Amino acid sequence: MKWLVLLGLVAFSECIVKIPLRRVKTMRKTLSGKNMLNNFLKEDPYRLSQISFRGSNLTIHPLRNIRDIFYVGNITIGTPPQEFQVIFDTGSSDLWVPSIDCNSTSCATHVRFRHLQSSTFRPTNKTFRIIYGSGRMNGVIAYDTVRIGDLVSTNQPFGLSVEEYGFAHKRFDGILGLNYWNLSWSKAMPIFDKLKNEGAISEPVFAFYLSKDKREGSVVMFGGVDHRYYKGELKWVPLIQAVDWSVHVDRITMNREVIACSEGCAALVDTGSSNIQGPGRLIDNIQRIIGATPRGSKYYVSCSAVNILPSIIFTINGVNYPVPPRAYILKDSRGHCYTTFKEKRVRRSTESWVLGEVFLRLYFSVFDRGNDRIGLARAV
Fold it and tell me: What is the pLDDT of residue 213?
């Protein structure tokens, strides 16, 4: 759907100045070399972002909101290019699309990559598999040219699924992972790492603005930040470790009472998840507090409750991030209202949460690989 990309480019062309791409030494490296980085960040944590993003060559790529459940954007693979709709996912690290050789029901309902039609395709015999919360795939690694808008990665490793389970009739063809390389199931270099290493983006950052209700208007941006998408200033949160996009949460409260994370916990900031996820017993307690009743796989409340229920507040790095009921309650196709709190399927020995699109529609998010941190600010 090339017209969507063109609309996105036209909409932003008036405020973006295109600057020739060049490899630069980041401020982080310069200060680290002089043993000044820690003092610089401590004394002026926001000045760094203003300096490093000011000369950025932004690539802004449109996303489509599919019923507030997930967001998809177009990429192309091969020469000539073949177009696919993918989820840009900070919860995983691999890029994959269905292969023409995949005969699973899930593959049959999606666009499949025709490798014989690409003059730049290079196969391998390396196989891998990925297990997600909602499905799984088995595939093989290949190399080809991948394009995200005007960003081009030649000889990019990616996965071709030969078996898929759980993705039938989903309105996306594949997934483009934006998490750290160490989490890659295929062990292939993620596309963001390759673009960063080759200097194709001026700063090692990407950011998301996710719209609510509206099908259009959402974007992912690479190489910098468009400040028109948020209010105030970005609040930076260091990652727990430079291995994934997880941050430390101080506590979770409702009605001024701590309901979870009483001793601190971890939360993955995940653009590939629709919900707010947490340990089952704590999720059950939240459903009880708001008076939700189970029906099938969801918990439902009266739609009028949106006006009276409390916000759930995530305190992160000393800053409160409220999620009001208008955000954590959605309507299904029949007009019934359900909550977006869900039990985490992957359990850990320590308490951990997932802050998905319910949270990210409220807060513009910047994922800064150069400084291993996430920036959050109220979305416009």
Answer: 79
